[in-house]
């Protein structure tokens, strides 16, 4: 551990993916859903695989089934699975800091995760208590995640650029008991703890910091209290609790079980879907190992599952970057020679337009996977041409926080740029008429709904939102308007859901409206996303001022700036209007504002 240091984190702005959520427990509707879910997750599976074939259960016409052979659904927890896999290549590097070079082998990650979990138990934490990770991408992130989950503690993850108020809101809602962070965030987390009486301990990666326990000290624990036989229900117990706005409203905790996430890992690495190769030998010197540059944040479901956990499942080397900075990212690529790159559209565009790329650094690259937002065909073609690799697989995918996240990936052969792909293994998809709910055929536009083992258990302590998102037959309603073609490849057309996507990051209009209503000059307000070539969308506030109020647009924007993370700021502007369009019951009609905006643009 000598020479341990953290990179400077002046700005943790990252280009990431945003995603969505659904289910809790309690009502007859949810009991029905649980029965449906258990049909997909039969408990009478062997320890290695399930024999259930989703294709044998056709629900109705115009349902698209995955064409891929059923993937294995392990009955192990995510942590047990990692420990078993890590034993196959113990001496290979599992995770390395792309800034400092600090690294851990698979055997070391396994050992330190056990020690961290044991130390949490020694501190008095119990199964079911929530641990909060307020961290950028660091080698210690997966260690803390696996260690806490291994002793039955669900983990909620938070963007470290959030303000104290934003973090506290999530900690309060999730009932978090202990928070892990970095020295640069220590003052902010002290403020958070003062607002959250349930938080009993603060842990720092690095340090020392007054009032914090050092993670390095916890790594000295004997590990004897990490119990391999702890009773964790694979199908019911929560593995992670990320937050998502879903289709509408404030961010909500998304309950993802070990089964949800474990299933999605196997769906993503399915050989019919991915070129990802497992590390071929325990011998470091003569084995192939995938190399990932991990710039997409682990606190986000895309980075956590589709990058970090799938990579660890197959023995990849994860090279972490705490945030995107063009030069550090490129230097990391040049040093590490990645085999796969997981990106979002702005990063694809960045690489495609970079005139001085050292092309030899990409000689091992076989796949670029892009998610979070639609990738324009021109941007994809530009990068393939720029790299000169016509055998490069440029894959797109679709997912939501509520689906762990991946439901679609473009096929390895005959993938269509502009499509986000076809259903992954064990997944059904349908497109339904917005008025009748009838399942539609190829070429017809409607709301896309998905069904599979990766669909969340539900929203944490929010039965109402769960029931509004997952119907009584167990279908997750995505809030996205889509269609599929004759080859069962899917295309996004529009969005029903109200959330705004800024460089792939979710922004809840309701959350910003709550902040704006605290301004003394604001009588009424509505927030929508306005199109932007670089960010995708930017938040814009339509404000009705109180009579006689003298506040300027700049005053109101500055008021919001102080209270939210940078990607949530009103960079789309503030517009003063006489009234906000609403229904007869007082519900905001954001779509009318959107229509008005689009007509002005055209």
Automatic annotation (TrEMBL):
One GO biological process term: bioluminescence
Compartments where found: Peroxisome
Domain called AMP-binding enzyme C-terminal: residue spans: 511-587
EC number: 1.13.12.7
Gene3D superfamilies: 3.30.300.30, 3.40.50.980, Luciferase, Domain 3 (2.30.38.10)
Catalytic reactions of this protein: firefly D-luciferin + ATP + O2 = firefly oxyluciferin + hnu + AMP + CO2 + diphosphate
Keywords, sorted A to Z: ATP-binding, Luminescence, Nucleotide-binding, Peroxisome, Photoprotein
One of the record's GO molecular function terms: ATP binding
InterPro entries tied to this protein: AMP-bd_C, AMP-bd_C_sf, AMP-binding_CS, AMP-dep_synth/lig_dom
SUPFAM superfamilies named among the record's database cross-references: Acetyl-CoA synthetase-like (SSF56801)
Keyword ATP-binding found: yes
Domain AMP-dependent synthetase/ligase per the UniProt entry, residue ranges: 82-460
Chief location of this protein within or outside the cell: other
Pfam family name, one: AMP-binding
GO cellular component assignments: peroxisome
PANTHER family listed in its UniProt record: BCDNA.GH02901, LONG-CHAIN-FATTY-ACID--COA LIGASE
Family: Belongs to the ATP-dependent AMP-binding enzyme family.
Name of this protein: Luciferin 4-monooxygenase
Organism ancestry: Eukaryota, Metazoa, Ecdysozoa, Arthropoda, Crustacea
């Amino acid at each position: 551990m000598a020479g341990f240091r953290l990179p400077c984190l002046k700005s943790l702005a990252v280009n990431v993916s945003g995603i969505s959520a659904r289910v809790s427990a309690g009502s007859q509707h949810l009991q029905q859903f649980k029965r449906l879910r258990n049909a997909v997750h039969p408990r009478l599976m062997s320890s290695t695989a399930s024999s259930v074939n989703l294709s044998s259960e056709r629900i109705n016409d115009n349902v698209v089934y995955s064409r891929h052979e059923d993937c294995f659904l392990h009955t192990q927890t995510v942590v047990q699975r990692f420990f078993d896999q890590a034993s196959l290549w113990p001496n290979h590097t599992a995770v390395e800091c792309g800034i400092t070079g600090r690294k851990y082998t698979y055997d070391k990650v396994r050992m330190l995760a056990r020690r961290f979990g044991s130390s949490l138990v020694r501190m008095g934490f119990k199964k079911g208590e929530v641990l909060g990770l307020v961290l950028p991408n660091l080698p210690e992130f997966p260690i803390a995640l696996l260690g806490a989950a291994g002793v039955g503690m669900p983990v909620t993850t938070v963007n470290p650029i959030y303000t104290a108020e934003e973090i506290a809101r999530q900690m309060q809602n999730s009932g978090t008991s202990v928070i892990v962070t970095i020295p640069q965030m220590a003052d902010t987390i002290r403020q958070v703890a003062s607002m959250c009486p349930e938080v009993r301990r603060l842990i720092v990666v690095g340090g020392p910091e007054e009032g914090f326990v050092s993670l390095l000290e916890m790594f000295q624990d004997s590990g004897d209290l990490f119990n391999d036989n702890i009773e964790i229900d694979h199908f019911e117990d929560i593995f992670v609790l990320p937050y998502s706005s879903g289709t509408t409203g404030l961010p909500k905790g998304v309950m993802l079980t070990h089964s949800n996430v474990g299933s999605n890992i196997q769906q993503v690495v399915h050989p019919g879907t991915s070129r990802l190769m497992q590390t071929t030998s325990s011998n470091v010197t003569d084995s192939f190992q995938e190399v990932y540059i991990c710039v997409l944040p682990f606190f986000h479901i895309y980075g956590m599952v589709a990058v970090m956990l799938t990579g660890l499942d197959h023995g990849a080397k994860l090279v972490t970057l705490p945030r995107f900075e063009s030069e550090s990212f490129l230097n990391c690529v040049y040093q590490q020679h990645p085999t796969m790159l997981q990106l979002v559209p702005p990063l694809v565009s960045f690489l495609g337009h970079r005139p001085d790329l050292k092309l030899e650094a990409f000689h091992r690259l076989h796949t670029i996977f892009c998610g979070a937002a639609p990738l324009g065909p021109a941007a994809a073609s530009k990068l393939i041409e720029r790299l000169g690799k016509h055998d490069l697989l440029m894959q797109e995918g679709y997912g939501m926080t509520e689906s762990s996240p991946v439901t679609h990936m473009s096929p390895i052969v005959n993938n269509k740029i502009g499509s986000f792909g076809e259903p992954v293994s064990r997944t059904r998809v349908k497109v339904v008429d917005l008025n009748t709910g009838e399942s539609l055929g190829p070429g017809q536009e409607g709301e896309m709904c998905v069904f599979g083992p990766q669909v969340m258990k539900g929203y944490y302590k929010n039965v109402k939102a769960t029931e509004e998102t997952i119907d009584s037959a167990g279908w997750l309603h995505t809030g996205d308007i889509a269609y599929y073609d004759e080859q069962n490849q899917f295309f996004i057309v529009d969005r029903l859901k109200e959330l705004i996507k800024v460089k792939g990051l979710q922004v809840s209009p309701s959350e910003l409206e709550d902040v704006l209503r605290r301004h003394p000059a604001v009588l009424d307000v509505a927030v929508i996303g306005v199109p932007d070539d670089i960010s995708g969308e930017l938040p814009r506030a339509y404000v009705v001022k109180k009579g006689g109020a003298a506040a300027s647009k700049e005053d109101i924007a500055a008021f919001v700036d102080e209270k939210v993370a940078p990607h949530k700021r009103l960079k789309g502007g503030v517009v003063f209007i006489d009234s906000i369009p609403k229904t007869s019951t007082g519900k905001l009609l954001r779509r009318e504002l959107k229509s008005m905006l689009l007509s002005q643009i055209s």
